Amino acid sequence: MFKTTIAGSLPKPEWLAETNKLWPQWKATGDALLQYKSDATLLWLKEQEDCGLDVVGDGEQSRQHFVHGFLEQVEGIDFENKVTMGIRNNRYDAQVPQVIGPLRLKGRVHKFEASIARAHTHKQLKFTLPGPMTIVDTVADRYYGKGTNEKEGRIKMAFAFAELLNQEALALEADGVDVVQFDEPAFNVYMEEAADWGVQALERAAQGLKCTTAVHICYGYGIKANNDWKKTLGQEWRQYEKIFPSLAKSKINQVSLECQHSQVPMDLIELLRGKDVMVGVIDVASDVIETAEEVADTIGRALKFVDRKNLIACTNCGMAPMTRETAIAKLKALVGGAALASERYI
Ligand code: ZN
């Protein structure tokens, strides 16, 4: 059987936070909010298990956004005075916090939700963290770039974040997490920088981990700014070609990528030969539910370039901005398609 998993996020229930938003407002505060986060985590663990997924996660129910959830626990960041900044090479504007001093963790970042998830599932548990380069692209630097040029500042700040990510990743491993995944959509935007220092920063974040390590590189959530951007990328999306060779040489075990309905030439996966590849077989930018046949077909195309034992069926990206019903239907399609592919491609 091909194993199945998700990229990371799942929709938040309407009693927890605003729905269909990337930066939703919480619906409660204090202890009530913690209780709702815990309830939502349990709900999604159960749904993932019922859908038949092999590797499950917390669905990122306890963080407002996949980057800011981590940053909230970092000292040296001014969250009160956010500024508007063009992110992902100015693809869209975001309200981002500012780095104003040396970075240090205030304490554990994700112990609460990781412990709940570990206590309530016997399945393999994956936990996601933002990658250093993507964090650097989602904050405004007022400290690390001082007295140096912008590029040096970005690199210094990325490695400072990588150290903090590493502390949290090691703690998550101790909590019983089986897979630590770093999300690096920025790799697909700054390909030269990714190959130059981004992969090194990622390895620093994963240093010393004995559990499985993964990186997720996608073309973003299914929001309008991303969908418009994709239309400018031409017939063939070859971004992966520039970063996969460095990743292939890295110590990271698994690479999660976007395949379904994307213009990524499938043969680029060949560049990762030997790694586990989480093949994106579910489009998160569309509410149309894939059929098992479609999912199995995508797996079949990928199998020309990745060994059977190394292929894991996955979603293209996170499902946070979707409705719960659509997400569940897509999880079922994912598992059904992987089962069909297991029969087809023996
Ligand atoms: Zn993604």
3D structure, described in words:
- The protein has helices at 30-51, 68-71, 111-120, 132-136, 150-175, 191-205, 224-231, 239-249, 292-302, 324-344; strands at residues 3-4, 55-56, 74-87, 92-105, 124-130, 140-141, 179-183, 212-217, 254-258, 276-282, 311-315.
- With 346 residues, it is an alpha/beta fold.
- The protein has a single domain, classed as TIM Barrel (Alpha-Beta Barrel).
- The strands form two sheets. An eight-stranded parallel sheet has the order 1-11-10-9-8-7-5-2.
- Strand 3 and strand 4 form a beta hairpin.
- Helix 1 crosses helix 3, helix 5 (150-175) runs parallel beside helix 6 (191-205) and helix 9 crosses helix 10.
- The chain is globular and about 60 Å long.
- Residues 7, 185, 216, 218, 317-318 line the site of zinc ion.
